[in-house]
């Protein structure tokens, strides 16, 4: 069985495609020995590292697609949506466990908003780390841990290749990027696309007509462009052995989606690249990886700080 490590990128609703990526890799006989994740990739990575089956991962994806899960803990949270419901569901699946309890090495990234530094989480409470890495600024509230307030790890590390390599220095790294190559950027939907239901739609319709809303949309699209370019530059620097790009570029950050369709798109990304994936196990590449001596890619966060 061929051993690999995964670097799973962020992308909101698009992150459900990671489940299909993992399912297809397992079907093809690959053994996943380490996972690094940012944002949505952090959810899937943490669950899989804890031994959660593909069937249960699919069930988690179905629950995440339910808008009720994005409830607020308190009205003072500085965000459009909340994460109380999601945290409750993840606790049922992942549990209140430590990183040391996981079945394979896992790490995720987050950014501390006061000191503007990237932190990597590989110890302490897994649920706290996951809630930190998925806290999209403005959309979801920051995750406060002690004196620190963390937001989405994708801000500085959209696809955490360096973290995956640090977790598994001598294994090939498969990076999963949920945005297309630059040539396809013009066809992507806006990053911010708040979901509507019968209760919130009238409010959102009115908000969308305001000048501040239009300005915010321009700002969000500009930030999205920066994030995509950062992802491309980081991957050029960190050199994953292969990059998989599921065809999910028409799906917005918080779009309602077909879970089965997204999982299938993840599987398709593996099957269409199977020849290239097998090539990363060539003798020359394996020898090069033997000499890998990666350094820690960010400041490690000690949750006892």
Keywords:
9-stranded mixed beta sheet, 11 helices, 39% helix, alpha/beta, single chain, 305 residues, 9 strands
Explain what you see.
- Helix 2 (40-49) runs antiparallel to helix 5 (126-133) and helix 3 (54-64) packs antiparallel against helix 4.
- This protein has helices at residues 17-27, 40-49, 54-64, 84-93, 126-133, 161-167, 201-208, 211-238, 259-271, 274-279, 283-290; strands at residues 2-8, 30-37, 106-112, 117-121, 143-145, 148-152, 173-176, 242-244, 299-300.
- Strands 1, 2, 3, 4, 5, 6, 7, 8 and 9 form a nine-stranded mixed beta sheet that branches.
- It has 305 residues and is an alpha/beta fold.
- It is globular.
Largest sheet: 9 strands, mixed
User: Measured on Cα atoms, how large is the radius of gyration?
Assistant: 18 Å
| Counted beta strands | 9
Binned strand content: 5-15%
Count of DSSP-assigned helices:
11
């Amino acid at each position: 069985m061929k051993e690999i490590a995964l670097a799973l990128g962020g992308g909101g609703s698009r992150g459900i495609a990671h489940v299909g990526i993992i399912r297809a890799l397992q079907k093809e006989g690959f053994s996943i020995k380490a996972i690094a994740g940012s944002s949505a990739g952090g959810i899937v990575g943490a669950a899989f590292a804890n031994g959660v089956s593909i069937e249960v991962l699919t069930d988690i994806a179905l629950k995440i697609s339910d808008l009720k899960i994005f409830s607020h803990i308190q009205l003072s949270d500085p965000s459009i949506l909340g994460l109380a419901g999601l945290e409750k569901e993840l606790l049922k699946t992942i549990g209140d466990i430590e990183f040391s309890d996981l079945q394979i090495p896992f790490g995720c990234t987050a950014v501390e908003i006061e000191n503007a530094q990237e932190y990597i989480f590989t110890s302490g409470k897994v649920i706290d780390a996951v809630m930190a890495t998925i806290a999209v600024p403005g959309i979801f509230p920051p995750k406060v841990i002690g004196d620190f307030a963390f937001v989405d790890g994708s801000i500085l590390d959209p696809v955490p290749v360096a973290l995956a390599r640090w977790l598994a220095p001598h294994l090939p790294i498969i990076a999963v990027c949920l945005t297309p190559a630059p040539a396809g950027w013009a066809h992507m939907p806006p990053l911010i696309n708040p979901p509507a239901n019968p209760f919130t739609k009238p409010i959102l319709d009115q908000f969308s007509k305001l000048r501040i809303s239009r300005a915010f949309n321009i700002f969000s699209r500009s930030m999205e462009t920066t994030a995509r370019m950062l992802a491309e530059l980081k991957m050029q620097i960190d050199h994953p052995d292969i990059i998989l790009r599921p065809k999910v570029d028409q799906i917005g950050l918080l779009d309602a989606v077909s879970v089965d369709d997204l999982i299938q798109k993840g599987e398709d990304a593996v099957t269409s690249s199977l020849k290239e994936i097998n090539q990363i196990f060539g003798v020359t590449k394996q020898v090069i990886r033997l000499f890998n001596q990666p350094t820690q890619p960010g400041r490690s966060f000690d949750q006892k700080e």
